[in-house]
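Newbie here. two chains, one complex. Structure please?
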Amino acid sequence: MSNEAPAAGDGRRSQRALIALLVTVAAVVIVALIAVLTRGGPAQYAEGSPEGVVQRYVQAVTDGDRQTALALLTPTIAEECQRLEPSGEDYRVTLTGASEEGDSARVDVMVTTYYDPGLLGSGEFQQQETFELTRVDGAWRLETTPWMFAVCMGATL
Amino acid sequence: MTGHTAPPAHRPSSDAQGVVRRLIVFALLYAVVVIGASGLGGLIGRILDRGDVLADDSTGLARSLAFALIAIPLAAVLWWWQRRRLTEPDERGSLVWSLYLAAMTLTALINATVSMAGFLNASLAGDWEPGRLASCAVWAGVWLWHRSMREDPAISPTRLPHLSVQLSAAYGLIVAAIGSVTAIAALVSEALTGFVPVIGDTRSAWFVPVLQALVWAAIGAVVWWWHWLRERASTAPGDFGAVLLVIIHGAAAATTLFATGTVLHVVLRLLLDSDPTAEILRPLGTAVGAALVGAIIWVFHDRDLPLRSSRVREAGRLVVSGIALIGAASGFGVVINALLASLGPQLIESDHRTLLLGGVSALLVGGPVWWLAWRPTRQTTPEEAGETARRVYLVALFGASAVVALVTLLLVGYRIFDVLLDDGGGSLIHRVRAPFGLLCATGLVFGYHFAVWRADRQIAIVPPRSHQIGRVVLVVGAEPGELAAQVRAETDIPVTLWQAADERDGLTEAHLPAALAALEGVSAPRVLVVAGEGDGVRVVPLAD
């Protein structure tokens, strides 16, 4: 009898802990769903800023708009461009830092790549990448891009 | 006496032949069943997929035809031949039979679930892949066939009879856990994108990865529920069930603690670190999912530990204590590492801060859990000090400490000599801080547990073993039923079956109560049990 009482107490405690954990999971899922469903689209950066140039370039590459993408590269690279097809994966690009120094600028991003689900669910991986820009006739133009957004061989890091 | 103890002269070679024969037959059966199922799955897939690939892929069709038309009849013949033998107690009690059944059941289950999940996930992504559905149907058939073997009272294995159910339950749990963690991680990561500056997102539907992970979670949950609860793997007798439960309990605890430490690290970095928010938040989704799912599995299985025995409960507690101790000690080592890093010239401030916060997180999570599990302030009783689990735990800790100390000492020595011999070697503190931090933590762990071990040795009372028998040899008749399994379950002693030449001399299930009573108090490396008058038995302790 003396052993049964603590065992029953342990059982009740485990039951309560289990219910609390399941409620927490439900709360996390509901809050996450609300956050996802109520968020807006990506912020729009000023067209003249390095971040804005990177944003327009990434959009053009993923839309398959090669002309716009080429127009955002430095003229030297655009003229000597050897065509390179984008990889075709899905990406999310998040800004992690931007800096300017004279006529040079760099935009640091974190690229999340989504690939076909393999064993045990969805697949994604993240990597830090950098876009390097230079000022040409007062406008920022891309000098190097991460490999997954390259449209010309010369523009790849 | 010699006449009673020595087995017949031809027995060893006969046993060896039997083992080799079973190994060959079951290995062949496993191979032809896998090949046949693969061929049949390929053929059905082609029928469902006809028009797309049939005309272009004659090599694949030829392979599927060969696999199906040769391997399936071979499997049928092999099984028909082996099925007749399995009615003999030696065959049913063979470890090879039990291992074959477990391996084939698990292979079929894994293939069926992977094919089903692949089909559903491809459908969610807008692709129609009937080949996967065909493969799922074929492997489900193989699984059902082997389940019927396990359930057949005439041939079901008497040794490790619950192995396939227990392994299947563990597989289901792993799949359900990874699927759930992936689904929660994908959802939380998606929600966090609202708090970081997103430049671009090329995906058309963010929820597809979440649904795909949920498919895995659902399939895993069904597999686990079926085997763990409905087929009662949770209460299956035997040591393997207890070991499996402790492993699941420990793995869930390790996942929860590591993930909780990661969540705490992210929170501390958000408050105190200067790195970009997107980089800091990167591991949060997976950590939240792993912490929640791991905790649910941990708590759920924690309830089952005391139902097994007090020894299993103690083993579970010590495993959690060991895992938490590893976390806390690693955290302490990393804190020392970060403190030493801050002594020298600082080129990158953020790295040291991240390191320090990581160490603090591990210490804050591991320390309290270790305290609760180990209860260092509680007075140790002589019975507790003599428990095997506690002594194994302490010896394992000494072994692990010795290995870590040796490796870290070698590293410290190498780097000291490297600095001394190399003129431009840089700061000695910076070169040795990481191994030195771990060495300090290991020294603390070793010192404390050595004191505990010495104190235990002075007060320990080693409990007497209830059964001082190494193995029980049962001389059985043609229909021993579940006698071997029941003796094993009741006494926890390994059992060997010998077939009596005369049916009247063999034990049956009716002899179980008398056999258990007769074994009480007997002490010998091996004990022979033969049928006596009526339902009585005769127990003969054998010399070593």
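Moderator note: The CA atoms of residues 10 and 82 of chain A lie 70 Å apart. Strands of chain A lie at 90-101, 104-118, 121-136, 139-144. Thread marked as resolved.
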